Amino acid sequence: MxxxxxxxxxxxxxxxxxxxxxxxxxxxxxxxxALASGAPLFSGLITGIVGGLVVAWxxxxxxxxxxxxxGLTVIVLNGLETLGTFEAFLxxxxxxxxxxxxxxFVKAGVIGLYFPxxxxxxxxAAIGLILILKQIPHFMGADEDFFGDxxxxxxxxxxxxxxxxxxFSSVQLGALIVGIVSLIILIAWDNQKLxxxxxxxxxxxxxxxxxxxxxxxxxxxxxxxxxxxADSHLVSIPVIGNMQELGNVLMLPDFGAFGNxxxxxVAFTIGIVASLETLLSVEAVDKxxxxxxxxxxxxxxxxxxxxxxxxxxxxxxxxxxxxxxxSANVASGGQTRVAAFVHGVFLALSVFFLATFLNHIPLSAxxxxxxxxxxxxxxxxxxxxxxxxxxxQFIPFIVTIVAILFTDLLIGICIGLAVGVFYILKAxxxxxxxxxxxxxxxxxxxxxxxSEHVSFLNKASIIMTLDQLPSDSHVIIDGENTEYIDYDxxxxxxxxxKTAHERDITVEVLNIKEVSVLEMH
Length: 521
Prior knowledge:
Among the domains are: 12-115 and 140-166 and 230-366, no CATH class; 435-510, STAS domain (Transcription Regulator spoIIAA, 2-Layer Sandwich), CATH 3.30.750. Helix 2 packs antiparallel against helix 12 and helix 5 crosses helix 11. The protein has helices spanning 12-36, 41-58, 73-83, 86-105, 117-139, 160-169, 173-189, 198-202, 205-223, 243-249, 261-288, 297-314, 323-331, 338-358, 363-377, 380-388, 391-406, 409-427, 459-467, 487-499; strands at 65-68, 319-322, 435-439, 445-450, 453-454, 474-478, 484-485, 506-510. The strands form three sheets. The chain has a four-stranded mixed beta sheet, with no helix packed on it. It has a two-stranded antiparallel sheet with strand order 1-2. Strands 5-7 form a two-stranded parallel sheet. The protein contains 20 helices and eight strands. The longest helix has 28 residues, at 261-288. The mean pLDDT is 86.
């Protein structure tokens, strides 16, 4: 019997350990992003919990994980400065959620399909590089900046590269030892020979790393005090002892600010930027998904809208689908939305029961986890494979990476997209674009004829048509009259052919060359 990748109960053995790893990654990120945003620390945790407990079930994606995003820190900072109070800002978050709901209902989610594969892969590779570069100082116990920092220029006046140079002159030996031991364990845990044993399959390496790192620091404190890791390099969660203390940290929106025009300007900015970042992240996660499932992006926008409304009502930061957490989920073997939900459960439990324990976790151990995630996103094989596809695919890929490294996620994506569009327009100059579908007398046989020139501009309509094909049908995709098919379209056809059997669809591809589809895991 074929395993169903969407079964919520059949994949618990993979989803629960993956959810635990995502929790360990998300915990310091939630706190770090709240700190960088100038908001109460607890607001980051609220958003992470809502992203797991609420958005995971409403989401259009099986693998994406939602929470506070580093890309929104500047917007939150400016919003707080403009509106004056955190309560007024919460009202803007609620209104932004309503805007996202509207975008979902008017089917604006299709925008995500119009980003070329080279740009999406460039985004993933850039995120991987940033994770590696940003975690090296935390790995060495030398970085006082917040754990979730993703910007090139940092709060202390240094940049990504100068921070690494500083780290080598300010190494905290205890943190470095914990980081190295953690990294060795994680590398060993990924060994396929060990995966044959049930223990190594079920227990995530990140959990062993966390427990061992706490034990090591305890050993340092008692026997080698000079190696003890400073509190500034440990996880720091607010300790809440009872429901009254919880009530004191939860904040409500200031509904009296409804008449303030600035509230709507901030809300519009949050709604648009968060929606775009979500769509990009979901498209990227679909690339990472080994089952190549297509996420319902309109449903995702609605889910994010509900999430932001709930988070805003409880005193949380705005959220997006977050590529760092989502890629950690995929890398840890997550299969369904249960993994994101489990991460939310652990975040909620950490607030009430685990804060004292979790505050002993060294950041260098968590940095090791993110170093592994970063490497999987930016493996050398990815660059080699992209180079083999030709300069039309490689140049937008590299430009996207460099632009994101030296600016931020959204600006870098826009620069990469501009370069990608240039090559698309160049390849399709004066070419007619159309997509024609025929049905034979037997309604279970569907013939799709491609036009003479099929460009990336046809990708969205082709993918949507393939997604809407009925189950238990025989599909013939014919390129007999086609002179040129863009790589992105060829890739989409091959990914459909690879996974169509999961929908009981048989696929026959005629007169269309096969291409090498790069795997991102």
